[in-house]
DNA sequence: GACCTGCTGCGGGTTG
């Protein structure tokens, strides 16, 4: 104990055994840091009489671990928290977060008085003025009344938070994370000595629906434990009256979204509104951390911490591959706590009745319809996940055809359906009135549907994290088993299912990389802060650098961003609307113009959606939305399948497609343009591992999935070979279409796109040739009109494969091999929107996709011509390379390919693995003869951008 | 002989 914590004299006097107690807590807290979920921590915690301990005979010890003076046996007599005790909390703001000793001193002082005497006073008093936390007894009783068990991790969280520590709590869904932090938040309320008005607990969720749900859950417990505590939500759909009230004064607890929080930071009086803030909880952090919404959250937290360095921050997350990064992105220092609930997760597979007749390619999987219907029949409520909206539509329609009696009992749910429809479906699920819902990832998280008994996943789950997430939609409560059944749509997915089961058992979960220095988000944030009271350059730079994603932000980058918002950068200086901030005489940057401020607030957020058209009945009634490009292909009178109905397209008017019900003939299914979801490395490796095992002992000796595809694997092995972690299989074949080359690196489709283009380009440098490219998650195909000597090109048998698989000049070659400019331009649209260059139009009067596309394309070309150093351009290129082409993974794959043995085969016809590629419809023409200076310039630019 | 891919999330309430 070198540095004594600052405490008031009164608090020191009230402390029964000062020094040793705080030392103990400090070391215990350190244990938490170094060994999350360590048994010693749990043991230590269970000896204490904290509010979540279920042992009634534990010695009386206050929350920080100090023995309570004059303690009698039993928690009733010794509530650890006394709201009215005299403690010095004013010093807490000056002490850095994590200063355990200081917190323990305060809490030991609190425990000197008995709570019971305070209860009547609290009831009668001004509810806001007396903000007191619930006692341990109350909290325990509340749990017990629901028949809930208190888990050790919940105590760990509570203790750490009471000691003023921040942390990340990770556990599978349904493990009881919410109450662990919520009780901590309520108990911390007791730390507030003075009558206080305003926001103390901020609860962030990634979804409005989740905010509403959380609000209900928090209110339910708080009404019992802390009746005076005000809890409200604030999201985009908060009514104007409530919004106005909140603008004046925030409630004690606010449940909100990152976007709404940022909007609040853009108000001039933000400092005052957040002055009392004590604790922030970020729910479902794993959903945010990997994208720009997470970065925006980081920046908002940096701001809140700047105002209150002692802020206690807790993240709640599912288990994932990079937990340390997940925590670091949220807080400079803090503990990691693992939820201890032994959550049983069962993953199994519906094996087709006749595996030998199961298709080798395709994705829809309607062959499995009878089996799926059977499963639904046998259970009360089933969620059926599909990978795309059109797949959900088709499955729904076909299921109704198969079981007309299920009309009204099954429903459809995806992101393009109208909110009212979705709400109705969600309600039906909650009430247990629906037998099955066919959905996309729209039901991945959010509302907990307790009645859900079964979860089916049609087609590849693409990743282990997603699989676990979806499994968790069933048995959503501590102690209940979650079960997910994979429904393959073609033979290769049986292999994937086998790998997935193994990876789930090993909990080999994907990492979610945190974005690095996205300047578009920074630029938006700077304008937000200029609105929210203004900033000084050096101060805000220091603050921004405390956000993990900007820890390496250079002075030059900062100056560029500042110049960009102050002057419009190099190219936009003549347009006043891009001079968004202006320093006053004292060097404080503010937004000088109210109209600019208003426009900025309307553009806050990082989600950029493609513009879509409303779909409405001619007679009135909204159905949802489809993309402009789909509708533009339809002629009047055309039929299409949407929202589970067959509709006739009538006319297009003011961004709305009017339709009427049609009967009879099937129509087209809207194809929404969405993200491509490559299979994760984890899942790919698990699948390859299954193949390796199959080559050793035969597929028959493995699980049911592998047994089912044993004949297919035998065929593959007979005609060619099985790819394994040590062997790359390459096949060539002649057909009427031309000369095929198949390769199976098992690296996921986006890497295969890059790899196929790269190899095509490198070959074409030697021999002029045009390829058609097809890819899937398992491999790729190069199709050429002429014969190529692949054995020579690949140098098979000599091990010197670095030529085609080399990583030298990788960046240049990748950029040259793909139309990187076009990819960057598409990316740039999103960046321009986030950075505030493009105004989306006023609510209710959105601009059309064409208008928006035109203006972003204009900025893109203007910057390229006149402002090549524009860092937003560089960012667009970097995002394409990292996110769309997965350059890092591509490089790793090339290195793997160099190390692997090549098994080369000339086959007479397509092998089972090759066939799946042939039926992929994606064909990308790569005309090497036409590659021109445009590409060369792109390379030069990137070299400059990438630096030495 | 075999083929119907492409998710999700939020926010703003003026002006011409």
UniProtKB/TrEMBL annotation:
Region feature (Disordered): 1-30, 44-135
Gene3D superfamilies on file: P-loop containing nucleotide triphosphate hydrolases (3.40.50.300)
InterPro entries registered for this protein in UniProt: ATP-dep_Helicase, DEAD/DEAH_box_helicase_dom, DEXH_lig_assoc, Helicase_ATP-bd, Helicase_C-like, Lhr-like, Lhr-like_DEAD/DEAH_assoc, Lhr_WH_dom
Keyword Protein transport belongs to the record: no
Organism superkingdom: Bacteria
Keywords on record: ATP-binding, Coiled coil, DNA damage, DNA repair, DNA-binding, Helicase, Hydrolase, Isomerase, Ligase, Nucleotide-binding
Domain named Helicase C-terminal: residues: 368-522
Coiled coil (residue ranges): 873-900
Biased composition (Low complexity): 8-23
Biased segments, Polar residues type: 101-117
Helicase ATP-binding domain ranges (all copies): 158-338
GO MF annotation terms: ligase activity
Family: Belongs to the Lhr helicase family. Lhr-Core subfamily.
Protein name as catalogued: Ligase-associated DNA damage response DEXH box helicase
Species of the source: Duganella zoogloeoides
């Amino acid at each position: 104990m070198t540095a004594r914590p600052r405490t008031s004299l009164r608090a020191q006097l009230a402390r029964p055994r000062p020094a040793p107690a705080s030392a103990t807590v400090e070391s215990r807290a350190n244990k938490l840091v170094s060994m999350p979920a360590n048994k010693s921590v749990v043991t230590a915690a269970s000896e204490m009489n904290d509010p979540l301990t279920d042992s009634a005979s534990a010695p009386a010890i206050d929350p920080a671990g100090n023995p309570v003076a004059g303690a009698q046996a039993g928690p009733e007599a010794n509530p650890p928290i006394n709201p009215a005790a005299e403690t010095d909390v004013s010093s807490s703001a000056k002490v850095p977060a994590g200063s355990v000793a200081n917190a323990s001193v305060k809490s030991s002082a609190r425990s000197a008085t008995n709570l019971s005497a305070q209860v009547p006073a609290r009831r009668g008093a001004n509810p806001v003025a007396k903000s007191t936390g619930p006692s341990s007894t109350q909290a325990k009783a509340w749990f017990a009344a629901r028949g809930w068990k208190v888990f050790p991790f919940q105590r760990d969280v509570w203790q750490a938070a009471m000691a003023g520590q921040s942390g990340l709590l990770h556990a599978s869904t349904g493990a009881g994370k919410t109450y662990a932090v919520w009780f901590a938040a309520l108990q911390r309320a007791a730390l507030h000595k003075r009558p206080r008005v305003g926001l103390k607990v901020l609860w962030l969720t990634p979804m409005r629906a989740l905010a509403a749900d959380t609000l209900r859950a928090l209110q339910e417990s708080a009404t019992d434990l802390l009746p005076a505590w005000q809890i409200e939500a604030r999201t985009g759909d908060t009514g104007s009256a409530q919004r106005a009230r909140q603008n004046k004064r925030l409630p004690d607890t606010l449940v909100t979204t990152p976007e709404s929080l940022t909007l609040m930071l853009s108000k001039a009086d933000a400092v005052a509104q957040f002055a009392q803030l004590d604790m922030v909880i970020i729910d479902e952090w794993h959903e945010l951390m990997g994208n720009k919404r997470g970065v925006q959250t980081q920046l908002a937290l940096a701001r809140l911490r700047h105002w209150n360095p002692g802020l206690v921050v807790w993240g709640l997350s599912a288990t994932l591959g990079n937990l340390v990064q997940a925590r670091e992105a949220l807080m400079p220092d803090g503990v990691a706590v693992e939820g201890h609930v032994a959550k049983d997760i069962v993953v199994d597979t519906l094996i087709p009745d006749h595996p030998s007749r199961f298709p080798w390619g395709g994705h829809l999987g309607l062959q499995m319809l009878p089996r799926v219907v059977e499963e639904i029949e046998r259970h009360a409520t089933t969620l059926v996940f599909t990978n795309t909206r059109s797949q959900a539509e088709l499955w729904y329609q076909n299921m109704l055809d198969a079981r007309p009696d299920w009309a009204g009992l099954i429903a459809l749910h995806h992101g393009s359906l109208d909110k009212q429809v979705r709400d109705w479906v969600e309600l039906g699920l909650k009430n247990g009135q629906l037998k099955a819902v066919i959905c996309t990832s729209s039901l991945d998280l959010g509302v907990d549907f307790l009645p859900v008994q079964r979860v089916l996943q049609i087609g590849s789950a693409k990743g282990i994290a997603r699989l676990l997430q979806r499994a968790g939609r069933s048995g959503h409560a501590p102690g209940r088993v979650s079960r997910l059944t994979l429904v393959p749509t073609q033979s290769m997915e049986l292999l994937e299912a086998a790998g997935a089961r193994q990876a789930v058992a090993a909990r080999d979960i994907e990492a979610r990389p945190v974005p690095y220095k996205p300047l578009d988000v920074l630029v938006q944030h700077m304008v937000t802060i200029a609105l929210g009271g203004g900033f000084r350059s050096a101060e805000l730079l220091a603050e921004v650098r405390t956000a993990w994603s900007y820890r390496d932000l250079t002075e030059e980058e900062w100056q560029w961003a500042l110049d960009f918002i102050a002057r419009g950068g190099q190219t936009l200086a003549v347009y006043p609307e891009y001079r968004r901030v202006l320093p006053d005489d004292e060097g404080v940057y503010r937004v000088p113009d109210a109209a600019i401020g208003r426009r900025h607030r309307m553009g806050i957020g990082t989600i950029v959606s493609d513009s879509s058209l409303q779909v409405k009945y001619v007679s009135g009634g909204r159905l949802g939305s489809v993309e402009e490009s789909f509708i533009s292909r339809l002629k009047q009178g055309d039929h299409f399948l949407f929202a589970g109905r067959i509709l006739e397209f009538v006319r297009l008017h003011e961004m709305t497609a009017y339709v009427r019900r049609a009967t009879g003939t099937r129509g087209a299914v809207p194809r929404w343009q969405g993200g491509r979801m490559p299979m994760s490395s984890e899942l790919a490796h698990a699948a390859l591992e299954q193949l390796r095992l199959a080559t050793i002992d035969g597929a028959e000796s493995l699980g049911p999935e592998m047994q089912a595809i044993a004949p297919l694997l035998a065929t593959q092995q007979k005609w060619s070979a099985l790819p394994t972690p040590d062997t790359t299989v390459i096949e060539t074949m002649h057909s009427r279409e031309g000369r095929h080359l198949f390769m199976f690196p098992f690296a996921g489709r986006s890497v295969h796109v890059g790899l196929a283009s790269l190899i095509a380009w490198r070959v074409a440098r030697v021999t002029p040739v045009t390829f058609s490219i097809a890819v899937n998650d398992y491999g790729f195909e190069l199709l050429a009109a002429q014969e190529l000597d692949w054995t020579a090109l690949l140098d098979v048998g000599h091990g010197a494969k670095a030529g085609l698989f080399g990583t030298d000049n990788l960046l240049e070659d990748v950029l040259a091999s793909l139309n990187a400019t076009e990819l960057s331009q598409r990316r740039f649209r999103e960046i321009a929107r986030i950075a505030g260059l493009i105004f989306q139009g006023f609510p209710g009067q959105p601009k059309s996709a064409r208008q928006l596309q035109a203006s972003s394309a204009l900025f893109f070309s203007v910057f390229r011509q006149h402002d090549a150093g524009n860092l937003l351009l560089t960012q667009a290129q970097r995002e394409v390379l990292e996110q769309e082409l997965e350059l890092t993974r591509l490089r790793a794959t090339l290195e793997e390919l160099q190390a692997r043995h090549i098994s080369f085969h000339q086959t007479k016809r397509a092998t089972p693995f090759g066939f799946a590629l042939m039926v992929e419809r994606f064909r990308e023409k790569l005309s090497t003869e036409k590659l021109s200076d445009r590409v060369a310039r792109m390379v030069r630019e990137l070299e400059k951008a990438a630096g030495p």
